[in-house]
Amino acid sequence: MHEITLCQRALEIIEQQAAQNGARRVTGVWLKIGAFSCVEPAALTFCFELVCRGTVAEGAALHIEEERAECWCPACREYVHLLSQHVRRCPQCGSGELRIVADDGMQIRRIEISEE
């Protein structure tokens, strides 16, 4: 389960940003997860709550935005959206030559802080 490691790294960044902005508490965090990141949102939520215990981010609301699986199909010459990251064939023409366009990482999009 790599979600715990992702959450630990995210917490480091969150704590740095909170300290730089004089925050006493982080009340919300918005994350964007790439379609091909292999991150399970439920596991990420669980791990986030776990690693935030006893920190400035304890109790922070976690908002997860999942990116769609998007690829370029050279045969169709179009961008296509996949229903699953495990399906690697064009839904229009069946080509297996898809080029992944969607991100495979995780980004912190926004951090909400409180000075109280």
From TrEMBL:
Molecular function via GO: metallochaperone activity; nickel cation binding; zinc ion binding
Record InterPro entries: Hydgase_Ni_incorp_HypA/HybF_CS (IPR020538), HypA/HybF (IPR000688)
Indicate which residues the UniProt annotation says bind Zn(2+). 73, 76, 90, 93
Keyword list (alphabetical) reads:
Metal-binding, Nickel, Zinc
Q: Please give a single GO biological process term from the UniProt record.
A: protein maturation
User: Which Pfam families did the record assign?
Assistant: HypA
**Amino acids binding Ni(2+):** 2
The record's NCBIfam families line, in alphabetical order, gives: hypA, PRK03681.1, PRK12380.1
The entry's function note states:
Involved in the maturation of [NiFe] hydrogenases. Required for nickel insertion into the metal center of the hydrogenase.
PANTHER family reported in the protein's UniProt record: HYDROGENASE MATURATION FACTOR HYPA
- Tell me the protein family, please: Belongs to the HypA/HybF family.
- The protein here is known as Hydrogenase maturation factor HypA
Source organism of the structure: Pluralibacter gergoviae
